[in-house]
Amino acid sequence: MESLSNRKKVVSNKKMSFVESLYLPAIVGGMWITIKHMFKKHNTLKYPEQQRVFAPVYRGMHVLKRDEQGRENCTACGLCAVACPAEAITMVAAERQKGEENLYREEKYAESYEINMLRCIFCGLCEEACPKEAIFLTDRIVPTNFDRDEFVYGKDRLVEQLDNRIDITVRQNTGKRGEK
Ligand code: SF4
Ligand code: SF4
To answer: Are 94 and 33 in contact, with CB atoms under 8 Å apart?
Structure first.
């Protein structure tokens, strides 16, 4: 049958010649390829000392946004968790108490909110599903670690800090979301 990719090779079982049976031509050929690569431009970077410039629409580590008054936007509706194909998001909802209006924008908020970054495939569906503009993916990289537990990110690492707000407007505008 014709191969769809046209890359199909017919494997032959022909007998090796005397020179081929010495394996020397194959070894020299392999060494030649290795030496050639030593002088080629490397595509790898010495991360984290060197960092690649990402496209503006790069999807990296999430942020749970606050509104302009500093209140958490998330209302723990769970839509992001339902939309997540990797089942990476879990949360516990709680009711906002009197006096907490300056902390949480909605009457219900996420008492705990966790994303397992090892499960996450950074697809952005949580961001798409959120009706409160609470969760966004950013251009930040999830730091490496030797401990798997360290990849479960809670609110302490997801909610943006009041004194270190994260601007997601560039990424949102560059992606031209919603345009037909
Ligand atoms: S980016 Fe995708 S995989 Fe990661 S938490 Fe959001 S929906 Fe789940
Ligand atoms: S981040 Fe958005 S979708 Fe997810 S629970 Fe909070 S408000 Fe709902």
So the answer is: no
Report for 53-67, 91-105, 157-171: range of highest mean pLDDT: 91-105
In tens, the pLDDT along 67-96 reads: 999 999 999 999 999 999 999 999 999 999
52 DSSP assignment: P
What does the alpha-carbon distance between residue 93 and residue 112 come to, in Å, rounded to a whole number? Answer: 7
- The answer to whether position 179 is within a domain reads no
| CATH code of residue 78 | 3.30.70.3270
Categorise residue 124: left if φ over 0, alpha if ψ from -120 to 50, beta otherwise.
Answer: left
Domain around 168: 62-174
Does the residue 6 lie in any domain?
no
- Kindly list the protein residues whose Cβ atom lies closer than 6 A to any atom of ligand 2: 74-80, 91, 110, 129-130, 132, 134-135
The predicted pLDDT at position 14 comes to 84
Give me the number of domains the chain comprises. 1
| Whether pLDDT at 180 is above 80 | no
Give the three-class secondary structure for 23: coil
- Does 99 map to a domain? yes
Ligand nearest to the CA of 134: 2
Residue 111 lies in a domain: yes
